[in-house]
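Morning!

As promised:
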Amino acid sequence: MTDFQAILDGNRLALSRLLTQVENDSPESRAALVELFPHTGKAHLIGVTGSPGTGKSSLVNQLALHYRKLENKRVAVVAVDPSSPFTGGAVLGDRVRMRDLAGDPGVFIRSMATRGSLGGLAQSTANVVRVFDAAGYDIVIIETVGAGQSEVDIARLAHTTLVVEAPGLGDDIQAIKAGILEIADILVVNKADRPGVEMTEKALKSMLELAHPVQRRFKHHGTYMDVPVYETQPQTQVWIPLIQRTISTDGAGIPELVQSIGRHVAYLTQSGDWTLRERTRLEVELDGLIREELVARFRRNVPVEQYESVLEKIVQRKMSPGEAVKLLMDGRFK
Amino acid sequence: MTDFQAILDGNRLALSRLLTQVENDSPESRAALVELFPHTGKAHLIGVTGSPGTGKSSLVNQLALHYRKLENKRVAVVAVDPSSPFTGGAVLGDRVRMRDLAGDPGVFIRSMATRGSLGGLAQSTANVVRVFDAAGYDIVIIETVGAGQSEVDIARLAHTTLVVEAPGLGDDIQAIKAGILEIADILVVNKADRPGVEMTEKALKSMLELAHPVQRRFKHHGTYMDVPVYETQPQTQVWIPLIQRTISTDGAGIPELVQSIGRHVAYLTQSGDWTLRERTRLEVELDGLIREELVARFRRNVPVEQYESVLEKIVQRKMSPGEAVKLLMDGRFK
């Protein structure tokens, strides 16, 4: 039994316990999420993504410090590390952060690592974010390593997405990250005291010009079930991604970055995009849960022996996968 | 109506037509895939993945030339480009290749670009590969840009996976690709005439040592439905990924690479891994098709108005996503 009132009151121990349950997707946590849901929708969700080596974690640290100390906001950081066990970056990152932020009741840092599929990680990150939202954190920063589709999925959670770059990471990095650029609301050139900062900024500018902002926004909000919400939305205003220099080791550029984030919030509110992003996010989540539940029901309803025998026929090329699906599904969904 | 016999006989025009239908997922192509399925399972599928700048495409070109001219094999190349519209790499690649291989009836090159979701691309790539297999191509090379989960999915199609590196791409590239390394059967250090080749090779070796080969193999074969096939499989033999230097511009190292690929085929056959990979591949495909069909049936059965009204309640925080799923699914799957 979860003590909802304790969480709504900001009790850290109760919060910490619930977060663990949510990560483990326990039945208690599912019930708790239902109870907490009406209290969500107030936090500003900021996604921060970027390759290893961009100084992303210390940037997040600086952002959290700024919001906490200069704007008196309550800040939660969710650090998501979908990479392989090689790096172990998340744990180390926490320790470094602790020095600056430990003991402050208005700051909560949580690391999450991949356990099952990346899809599962996106869902449990969404739930963890929701708990922080209900618990009254004003800002929730979601930090991910920029490495592909998973980041795009997780970025969809955020109202404002920061993509972090740094000088001297090579041309190939740029090419890989073309897809990641498309989700950026603000491009941060961190480590701006390093040589090559002008070149990096120039490269980003020319990529932005290529990206055709209007089309970009449509793609950003594209959802799985293809509900044509945009047709009814007038596209009166377009957000052109800002480029911002920072040096996260000494905090230079952080006040300007916070100001840009504020401008983005103002844009989101005025254009109606805030509501649109909320809706899209909830729709993507609903679709994911529907898929999960459909598969769970399928597994409960199709005997393992039948599934195995059909698979065996496919392996022996006696039945095609398409035929097998028809056979397995026959009459099971009305 | 597809002319199956023409395809089995190796008619290029009929083949080309069917490939287009398969890419468009037309009803005719679905029927054709059922008909062709019993004729598949003979080709050796070789996956080649690597970042832009590694010279991957010309390496594939050289491999195809070698198999064709020195071993008299029929070779198909499927070049998959899941990147954003910025690069346009696939089309350019084809043109360069044409000079060497055009007009040879024993070679067929096909480029595929992302149209819908990456999941859809993996499925249509699987189908295109299957058509080449049925049409009697001995070797099917599947080439992808190494940029994340999609490559892992597509690599699952292959019996043998080559990961291509090149000197001078920087440390950060290495970090990003930790996950990609785990799928490599052979690591190719291309552009081996460039400075820094020893360092790249050394970095790869130390990463391989970190990767714990036994654990790696278990992960490699892990499937979605969690059927514990491994428990019954004795793990008598382990493949340690080979590292191979090549210079694709002049073909140096290609005969040695082909030899290593041959050793991998021998290993797969002797260890039983060939059968295991086939089975895993077909199982992953079956699971994907089941998911797709479940969602399609759900969409047909749940009125759009009901879905929209439930989503609206979620947006207004009057119903949680979890509750919404229960409501939408109620009684619909027996």
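Residues 84-96, 171-176, 212-235 of chain B have pLDDT under 50 and may be disordered.

Hope this helps with the figure draft.
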